[in-house]
TrEMBL record:
InterPro entries registered for this protein in UniProt: ATP-dep_Glu-Cys_Ligase-2, CP_ATPgrasp_2, UCP005522
Superkingdom to which the source organism belongs: Bacteria
Lineage: Bacteria, Pseudomonadati, Pseudomonadota, Alphaproteobacteria, Hyphomicrobiales
Source organism: Methyloceanibacter superfactus
UniProt-recorded name of the protein: Circularly permuted ATP-grasp type 2 domain-containing protein
Domain Circularly permuted ATP-grasp type per the UniProt entry, residue ranges: 64-439
PANTHER family tied to this protein: BLR5612 PROTEIN (PTHR34595), SLL1039 PROTEIN (PTHR34595:SF7)
Pfam family for this entry, one: CP_ATPgrasp_2
Length: 463
């Protein structure tokens, strides 16, 4: 909100004036009303523990995070460039593998990757799109530049919170919008549906789109229900679909309905018991065959997980140069690959200063945050790393930028990141703003909701 010298940044000027004239008591009352609305709407997520899962309310902070137009233009261009390169990369590794032949990426990182699906080799997808929905996690350090922390192109979540945050802000804090020209986000469901319909198999004049969910015990089930309702499409589980004569059909009370596009929120290995995990209760037998023959489109495509592997992340700038002939607009964070003996030794000698992550990890689980760890925790983690070094990467502990946040009746700085959502299909576009996640605990750098983080409304000023 403020420059290093204490002056308010122009993007926050109107909000700063408003906060000067609003009592803390009033803000706390609005915050409590927002929490009650979230509770009534059922905006929750599941936290998985050894004893099962627990439903929790998504913590929401009333004070928005604001980006001016020049900041957003940089983010938008960088995210578009990155997702375009990732889609070309995915098409390439399942076809001619030119980037592997050029020696720019070690072949074993792709071909032996657990997320690589050889069943998709040679399969042509509509418009060559693999990642129809992508979430690019960005951070900012003490400077003004944004850095990419990771790419999410399997089944990225969080957009429902982005939409509900804006809705609740407009309902409870309308004064904050006075005199502001803020880019709208409410048309996301329409844009998503338009992009999904654009990749339907040829010959579908009025494509039938469904959203496939693992069911109500999934951590993002609220989002599945929300998006299906907003798009006006059916929410289905594996048992609601079947394959007959090469096509995918949906069971309805009026008889079978042919399905053209499946927006899936189910992981690859559970999608088809005939091809992957045979005991999956979430799956549609024969689905892979329908995908390979072009009778149904799947968003995101099978095998996209190779592109959001945390080890593959380090090679995205090379992908951008190789496929697009451009330099990366958004830089990566410095990353050490523990599969490399020299880099591994450096990391193990400096664990107290680094963040170490599993390459297939998500949700903030399985991490070691060096500065916040004990000597015993570092020794235990070191033993895990040495059992399978290729499963880990490490990054410096970064001083994430902060945003004003209402905590315990005070406005205080808390660390934030940003997840813009990129849609591909009819065209590639970025929803203005994205999801700001905030580490609500003082000093914490972990913004994941599963680890005590919350969310904010994100404003992009149009002028």
């Amino acid at each position: 909100m403020r420059e290093p010298d204490g002056t308010v940044r122009p993007a926050y000027a109107a909000l700063a004036d408003l906060l000067e004239n609003v009592s803390i008591e009033s803000l706390v009352t609005k915050q409590q009303a927002a929490d009650e609305l979230f509770r009534r709407l059922g905006i929750t997520f599941a936290v998985y523990t050894e004893g099962g899962s627990t439903e929790r309310l998504i913590p929401f902070d009333l004070i928005p995070r604001i980006l001016d137009r020049s900041e957003w233009d940089l983010v938008e261009r960088g995210c578009l460039q990155r997702v375009k390169a990732l889609n070309v990369f995915l098409h390439d590794i399942y076809h001619d593998q030119e980037i592997l032949k050029a020696g720019l990426i070690p072949p074993e990182l792709v071909l032996l990757n657990p997320a690589y699906r050889p069943e998709m080799h040679g399969v042509d997808l509509p418009k060559d799109v693999y990642a129809h929905i992508a979430g690019i996690d960005l951070i900012r350090t003490g400077e003004r530049d944004f850095f990419v922390l990771e790419d999410n192109v399997r089944t990225p979540s969080g957009v429902s919170y982005l939409l509900e945050n804006r809705e609740i802000m407009m309902r409870l804090f309308p004064d904050a919008f006075d005199g502001q020209s803020i880019s709208p986000v409410g048309n996301y469901p329409e844009r998503l549906l338009e992009n999904l319909r654009a990749v339907a198999p040829s010959g579908s004049d009025d494509p039938e789109v469904v959203l496939l969910t693992p069911g109500r015990f999934n951590s993002a089930y609220f989002e599945h229900v929300f998006l299906a309702e907003q798009m006006g499409i059916e929410l289905v589980e594996g048992g609601d679909l079947f394959v007959r004569d090469g096509d995918v059909w949906m069971r309805t009370t009026e008889g079978p309905v042919k399905v053209d596009v499946i927006y899936r929120r189910v992981d690859d290995e559970f999608m088809d018991p005939l091809a992957f995990q045979p005991d999956s209760m979430l799956a549609v037998p024969g689905l892979l065959s329908a995908i390979r023959s072009g009778r149904v489109a799947l968003a995101n495509a099978l095998g996209t997980g190779v592109a959001d592997d945390k080890a593959m992340y380090t090679y995205v700038p090379r992908m951008i140069e190789f496929y697009l002939g451009e330099h990366a607009i958004l830089n990566n964070v410095q990353t050490f690959m523990l599969r490399d003996p020299r880099q591994r030794q450096h990391v193990l000698n400096n664990l107290e200063n680094l963040v170490v992550k599993e390459v297939q990890g998500s949700g903030g689980y399985g991490m070691l945050i060096g500065p916040a760890s004990t000597a015993e925790e570092r020794e235990a983690y070191k033993a895990r790393v040495l059992q399978n070094p290729s499963n880990y990467i490490a990054q410096p502990t970064l001083s994430l930028s902060t945003a004003p946040t209402l905590c315990n009746g005070q406005i205080v700085p808390r660390h934030v990141d940003l997840r813009p959502f990129v849609l591909s299909g009819k065209e590639t576009s970025v929803i203005p703003g994205g999801l700001t996640r905030v580490a609500l605990r003082e000093g914490s750098l972990v913004v994941n909701s599963s680890q005590g983080g919350g969310t904010k409304d994100t404003w992009v000023l149009e002028r």
